[in-house]
Each structure stands twice: as structure tokens, then as C-alpha cells.
Amino acid sequence: MGKQKTITSTIVNGHGKSSVAVIQFNTNSLTNETFNELNAVLSDIEGLQEMNDPSNKLEGVIFTSEKDKIFLAGADLFELSKIMEMGSPWREPLLRDVIGRGQSTFERIEKLNIPTVAAIHGMCLGGGLELALACDYRITSNDSKTKLGLPEVTLGILPAWGGTTRLPELLTLPNALTALLTGKLYAPKPALKVGLIDKIVHRENLVSTSLSIIRKETRLKRKPQRSFIPPFIVFNQAAKNVKKATNGNYPAPNKIIETVKECRSLARKDCFRREVDVFIELTNTPEMANLLRIFRLQEESKKLKFASIHTKPIKKAVVVGAGTMGAGIAQWISSRGVNVLLKDVNEDAVSAGLKKIGDLYVQGVRKHKFDRPAARDGLARVSTSIGNTPLHTSDLVIEAIVEKLDVKQKVLSQLEEKLSDDAIIATNTSALSIDDMASCLKRPERFVGIHFFNPVHQMKLVEIVRGSKTSDETVQRAVQFVQKIGKLPVVVKDSPGFVVNRVLLPYLVQAAGKLNDGFSAESIDKAMIGFGMPMGPFRLMDEIGLDVCYHVAKDLEARLKIKGDGIDVLKSILDDGHLGKKTGKGFYKYKNGKAVRNQATEDAAHVATLLVNTMVEESWKILDDGVVDDRKWIDFSMIMGTGWAPFRGGPCTHDTDPITSLTYQKL
Known about the structure:
There is one protein chain. With 667 residues, this protein is an alpha/beta fold. The protein folds into three domains: 2-284, 2-enoyl-CoA Hydratase, Chain A, domain 1, CATH 3.90.226; 316-493, NAD(P)-binding Rossmann-like Domain (Rossmann fold, 3-Layer(aba) Sandwich); 500-666, N-(1-d-carboxylethyl)-l-norvaline Dehydrogenase, domain 2. It is built from 27 helices and 20 strands. The chain has an eight-stranded mixed sheet with strand order 13-12-11-14-15-16-17-18, with helices on both faces. Helix 1 links the parallel strand 3 (19-25) and strand 4 (58-65). Helix 9 runs antiparallel to helix 10 (251-263) and helix 14 runs antiparallel to helix 15.
């Protein structure tokens, strides 16, 4: 017992009662080193039990963490990545060793003949939750930072440290499959409702409540988790749901269903062996390799450093424009602890923006993204203005007004006069030239694009757009700000459409033009969903707004030389007064917010191939033009900004596969 590098273990004496061991993690993930230390502590506990000495008797064990935001975030995926990069014959034995070690360690916890409690505050994910499942009890803090889940399916694998076996033993089969197949993160209240945890307390009471549970001073009433639906129906429905959600593009969900089904008739040790075998099988799939790569890129984006410059942090922000994007940006910034002023030209616009912000906070509370006090605090950080408000104390202004160059230039030049010399001016433009906008400014080195995607509260990607005169310091401050508010930055050079819209718009315009060739919107959307896109091009255009698509396409038409008659198709629908979902009609009609679609009758597979190749071609042009310095950021931007078939790795990675590659086909 004592302090080690990733674990601190202490004995809490009971003043006349038996003692309790408290194992505190001071690491984010379960590394090889953590397992070494944890097993050493477990050996000490087992040794004390074997001595059967009343003076050294242990009454129970508590697992907790000293971290502010994380209990345990699971396996060290960077260690896993290194193993994955190894070839045969080393990779499989190493993977089996890593999985076997986790299983045996958690089995030791499960087999301790004294009560064990996982006292959870912060993120408890993957292997962290698998450790907690090996304990007798799980209690959590009531903090909004606390979330529990098994997200392995999103990496193309399954929980193999016992989670696939233990979770269906604890929850009803429908609830267990939902958790395993979706990677859903549970806030404390939903976790308690499904039976994943036993009690919710204030963070400061986690250890004392755990002691009370172990000493039977607090009695927990576990509701029996029962489902009256026959298992074969549950499994059949789960398979149908997976097929509908993935179109059969991801092997992991079906393997999870198959494994859970098999384990219902296997001994515990055989279930663990089955977990290992399926895990190894899934790691040999290209889907898993691509999903793991995207995870690594997310982590790289979170730690991205554009320049080694000491920069002033951004504490006060202004958002100009209270429309959908402006309100969304202001809400997100305020929810991340930054004071924000929302400005617009009149009271009606500001009131509408505030209503949007309030609605987003209400929605967040309902979905357990944050609790009511956090929502109230966030709203309190939002102030509004329609007048000539002094801005000299603001660190950052984000312009989010109409996409018209002359209007933006006028507003930006007015804002510059009110700001201090070291404040940053940013635009949320989705396609207009940063250099053209900067031409009206006295300090263009302080001007940068910070392009959020809609809806802001769901889309993680933010394009940091550097103009030819933007300074390194400005870019670095923008990157740090985006990271601070929990988004994923990618730095791009000012160019038509930047990355995402430059790839996306030619694809959308070409899809629209195919209507003139006799294909229906339904058939093309179906083909692209089959490819792996979250929605087809026509549904996407309706969601974005046909007016927005048209204006961006017209702006990019000359600069990108977009081919085809798709822009004319967009204009003809706009001329009829249809803007998409927001007006109830676009390429589809909408009833109660849902698209009314006809049955897709044509086979548009070859159209899908053409559309994919359009995106691939544009992606390579972006790299040739130096918009980004590595193709990985094109893949990353398209996946995080549009949902581009993650299992395919992004347009550039998809193109390096000899079977599907446009480049190989040309050669």
C-alpha cells in the first residue's frame, strides 16, 4: 500500500470497525504500468485476506480517482495503435496478452471475498466501466462531467475486458444491447434508471457513502432488471436496427450481437475467451483500422499547436449576428465558461437569438448534456446589445452575419475601430475569401476565419482559416480558443470553400444535375447512404437550406469551375419559393419536420461512384494547392465536418485502396 506513479492506495481505519482499502487512480487510462501497480495492490489485499489476522482485517475496497474530469477513460489507445502497426506474427500474441491481462485483473477484483465499490466521478468509459462492472457496487457523483459507457463499437471493436459478458448479466438484454451497439454515454440519472449504477451522491460524499455501503450502514435497494420480451425477439430486433443504422458497413455491431447470443449458453471462462477471439478478428478489419486512425486524429487536433508562441488567453468574446449560426456559436461558447456578448441590429433579432440559446440549453438539460445549474450559469454568461456598445475589453469578435462580401467588409471595419489593438477579429464565413474581407482592415494580421459547422452544438469540427496576412500568433490564439471550448480545430489556407465546402459543393451540385438525367432524388440518396454517408445529397441540401447551397455554389462556381447544370436546378427550385426543410419543401416535401419520400426505383450505384470520385478528385486538388499540409486533415475534416463514411477512412484514404481507388483506375 502507498503512492505509486498511477495509483495511490491507502487504508481507512474504522475506529473500532474493520478497515477499508481505498485505491485512487491518478491516470486517465489503463496503461501497462497501471495494470502492474493495480495487480501489486491486489496482491497486497489478497495477502491480508489470507493472513486472517483480525488486527489487519479488510472490510472492503473502494476504487476512485483524483482526476477532476475522468474516472478512467479505458485502455490506452495509443498503446493499442502501436501494437496494431506491428505485422504478423507479433501483433496477435501481443493483443491477446493485453486483453488477457485486463480480464485476469478484473477477475481478481470480482473474486475478492469482500465488498468492492467503484466511486465514480467524471468520464468512466470502456475499460474504466469494465473495471467498475467487476465491482459489487457502482455509485457516481451527480456532476454533469460524469458519464458512463462502452464506446468500443465506435472504434470497430467490442469490450473485451469482460464488458460484453458482464453487462448483459447486470442489465436487461434490450438495455445491454443498446449500450453495447450504440456506444451510448449515460449520465448518472439514466444510468441509475437502467440499473448500471446503484446510487448518485454529491462528489464530496463518494468515499464516505462507499464506506457506508461496505459497512452496511447504507442499504441499497436494487430494482430487479427484468425484460418480458423473449430473447430471440430482442436479438432479431437488434439485428434489424443495426442493419438500418449501418447498412451492413460496420462488422462490429453484428459481432457483438453474435457474441452476446453465444455467451448466454457458455461458461464464464468461455465467454471471456470468445471476447478475445472476436476482438482479434475485428482488429484485422480495415474498418477498425480507419476508425482507430480517426480517433488518433481527434486526439492530435485536441493538442494541435500551430506555433510555439506564448499567447494571451481569450476570456471575453463577442458574436455579431444573432441568427441560427450566431446564436448557436454564442450558446456553445457560454456553455464552456466564456462570457459572450451577442450583438445584432435590432431587438427582434436579438430576442430571437436569445430564444434559440435558451432552447438549446433546455434541450441540453433534457438530454443530460449538463444539469440545470450549469444551464443557468451558461445563460448568465450571455449578454446582448443592439447599440454602440464599447468593445475595447473584448479579446475576440466572431462575425456571423449574412454571406455577402460588401456587408461583411462594412461590419468588420466598424468593429475594428472599437477593439483593442491585440483583439482578434474572426469571421464564420463558410466560403468567402479571408483576404478579400481583410482588405478593408487596418490590422489584417489580427483577422482569421473561425468556421463553425451547423448545428454548432453537434458538429465538432472548426476550420481555422489563415489569410495571407494573418499572423502566426493570431492563428495560434484561434486554435487555443477552439480547443478551450471543446471543438476540434484544423488549420487551412484561405482558398475557395476551404476544405469541407470545396469538397462538398461540387458533389452536391453534380448530384442535383443528375435529376436532369432521369434519376430521382430518392435513388441517389439511397445509393450514397449505401456507400456510408449519413444522409444523401438531396436530404443534406434540404437540411442546409437550398438558398445557402445556391449562394455558396455561385460564389465557388467561377473559382472552382464547377461543371454541370446542378446550379440551374437549385435556382429553379428557389425561384418557386422552396428553400428546403425550413419552408416545408425542397427536393422533398416535409410533414411535421420529416421528409416524405417515394420508393427509390432506379439503381443509382454508378451515380454514387461518380459522386464519390468527384469528392476524391477535389480532395487531391486541395492537397496540390497546399490548403492543408497533410492529406490526413482532408480525411479528418470530411469525416468530422460532413460524416463522410468513417469506416472508409476519408476520401484520400478511400482512394489509396487499389480496389476502389480513382487514381488506380486512371493508372
